[in-house]
Amino acid sequence: MADFHQNGNIAQFHDLRCRPVEELEYELSTFAQTRKISLILPCLYSELEGPALRHILDELAKVPYLHHIVIGLDRATEEEYRHARQYFASLPQSHRVIWNDSPRMRALGDRLAEQGLAPPEPGKGKNVWSCIGYLLAQAESSVVAIHDCDITTYSKDMLARLVYPVAHPAFSYQLSKGFYARVGNGKLNGRVSRLLVSPLLIALKRTIGDRDYIDYLRSFRYPLSGEMALRMPLLPDLRIPSDWGLEIGVLSEAWRNLGRKAVCQVEIADNYDHKHQSLSPEDASAGLNRMSTDICKAIFRKLAADGTVFTPNVFRTLKATYYRSALDLLEAYSHDAIMNGLEMDRHGEEKMIEMFANNIMTAGQVFLENPHETPFIPNWNRIHSANPSFLGDLKAAALADDADYAPV
Questions:
Q1: Cα separations (Å) of 187 from 342, 344, 389?
Q2: How large a percentage of the chain has pLDDT more than 90?
Q3: Full 3-state SS string of 90-102
């Protein structure tokens, strides 16, 4: 059954959970005959050392409709890249491991830096951006899905439900966003979405008034999920943030480029858990501390681009309004946890709210003091315009690395 959330009128689908995954996979295999489906896996080498990724690969090995899998490998030495090649060799599908730290890839980055087009910083955003560039150069796929490599409860069902709305030839959706209940090990999870994004959007609406963009973001049940699927024509013009604002940034780009009817969300799992970031209260450059600031900046930048005027007084009011809204929601979350027999650290979550409130002010100050900040990586249309050979050179570098560095 499909329904439409009260804010933003974004279609959201629940009924796919009621269908056997074999039916979905059969249809997707049919769609894939004319619409090839690829998957991007942004990956740190350290994730090869944990159990989650091995389970993900075991599940992906059973997927019949994938045309190609691109693994973007970050923070890897030559020896580790060779090992990663062997590690991912268990995948029966066509796949490519892109070594983002290879000499060839670094040389390509230097070329972009000379033109002022290099990604501002390494990270998941740059990793995904590079993988998209490779798929654009390959020019074979019609649909691309993206999900993380640390999902401990992964099932191939998740991927089928995620890609179905954008792979179906009779549907007009260009972006499909996954959502799910954030419960794991008897605990209520999803801290940043529950304690930052939801109350921040409520506070923004109370502080600056109604905005269609705020209603749009509020329509997503889990806006920070890393699971999304997109049709390829959207990708050349997609501006990807290089910081922790990736998920919000992609939704903002969909808002900029697409109508609401071209965006949907789909429930992909009953149970979802992954590696949890540390709070890092003493280090503003790490963990949820850094993530919360980057997310706030991403939202403020988009609202400013739509004409909202921010001042120090606005941010002070926003902080106070956020704090009250977050505490009100925390009360409801506490009751929800009790009703469902889940654990919740009430004291710890209040401390987190206090940190997020301070980071709203930090993000606001950075936003006001750096009006020319451009954290977005240039989109691939701009890269191609400035350097028409670059996409081909990126693909050639990935193929050359594959040929020169055999698995150990």
A1: 5, 6, 50
A2: 76
A3: HCCCCEEEEECCC
Select from 169, 177, 104 the least CA-distant residue to 134. Answer: 104
Cα 18 off chain centre by: 26
Give me the sign of the Cα torsion angle 85, 87, 92, 95. Answer: negative
Question: How confident is the model over 254-269, as pLDDT tens digits?
Answer: 998 998 889 999 999 8
CB-CB contact of 264 with 173 (8 Å): yes
Q: pLDDT band at residue 16, thresholds of 50, 70 and 90?
A: low
Residue 269, sorted as left (phi over 0), alpha (psi -120 to 50) or beta, turns out to be beta
Nearest to 298 by CA among 361, 356, 376, 228: 376
| Cα-based distances in Å from 147 to 72, 154, 159, 166, 338 | 12, 10, 9, 15, 31
Contact 171, 72 (CB under 8 A): no
The single residue listed with the structure tokens 């429930």 is 267
Using DSSP bridges, classify how beta strands 95-99 and 66-74 pair: parallel, antiparallel or unpaired: parallel
Tokens 């889990």 belong to 222
Please provide the size of the chain in residues.
Answer: 408
Cα separation, 156 vs 243, in Å, equals: 28
Distance between CA 69 and CA 94 in Å, rounded? 6
Q: Tell me the three state secondary structure of residue 370.
A: coil
pLDDT level of residue 4 (50, 70, 90 thresholds): very low
Name residue, tokens 């996409």.
Answer: 391
- For residue 239, what are its two tokens? 């501006």
Mean pLDDT of the chain: 91
Contact 77, 47 (CB under 8 A): no
Q: Give dist(CA 69, CA 92) in Å, integer.
A: 10
Structure tokens at 251: 């939704």
The shares of helix, strand and coil residues in the chain, as percent rounded to the nearest 5, are: 55, 15, 30
Closest CA to 278 of 267, 268, 291: 291
